[in-house]
Amino acid sequence: QRHELQLTSAGKRGSYRVSAGAAHADIAQSSLCNTTLTLLADSLRLRFDYAWAGETLWLHTPDGPLALRDVTYAPSSTAESQGSGRAVAPMDGAVIDAPVAVGDAVTRGQTLAVVEAMKLELRVSADVDGVVHAVHVQRGQQVKARQLLVEVRATAQPEVG
Predict the structure, then answer these.
(1) Which residues fall within 8 angstroms of residue 119, CB to CB, at 6 or more apart?
(2) How far is CA 48 from the centre of its chain?
(3) Tens digit of pLDDT for each residue in 10-28?
(4) pLDDT in tens, the chain (161 residues)
(5) Strands of 93-97's sheet in order across
(6) How far apart are the first and last CA of the chain?
(7) DSSP track, 112-124
(8) Residue 133: CA atoms inside 13 Å, Cβ hemisphere, count?
């Protein structure tokens, strides 16, 4: 599920207002160390395990993993943009599934690998339609953030026009 949030500075360094439609919350960064972020949100202290994966911030929340991404300058439609075909680990962890093999046809959004990290199961999906060119991992293997897991060669897209 995708939600659009607006983050604006609230004056003091580390203080922000998060808005989603008419709802809002004032937050302040309390501490940031190793893989733990502590925030003060409307007088409540919230603590999250976190990890960066490229331009995505992953938070471990009581409701499950939450991915936050700044899309201010992203293309207007991800369906129109061409992916890289490179599926990389979102954070350090262990591969618990890699349900594809070289030669398999895959579609954008199809799960290529599942990485377990900080008790989260993170699905790594294809960003293009194509054929699996290489699988660089196997079940049980430890991986580092941004490590290449699977490569997909995009199938030719029909020209529009």
Answers:
(1) 60
(2) 16
(3) 777 778 888 887 888 888 8
(4) 677 778 787 777 778 888 887 888 888 877 778 888 888 887 888 888 888 776 778 888 888 888 887 766 555 554 445 788 999 988 889 999 999 999 999 999 899 999 998 778 888 999 999 999 999 999 999 999 889 999 999 987 655 55
(5) 120-125, 111-117, 93-97, 142-143
(6) 32
(7) EEEEEETTEEEEE
(8) 14
Token readout for 137 is: 């991992």
Q: Please indicate, yes or no, whether the overall pTM of this predicted structure exceeds 0.90.
A: no
* Residue 149, both tokens: 């897991």
Exposed (0-12), middle (13-18) or buried (19+): which is 102, by Cβ within 10 Å?
A: exposed
Distance (Å) of CA 134 to CA 32, 45, 86, 98: 37, 44, 10, 12
Tokens 């893989």 — which residue?
Answer: 35
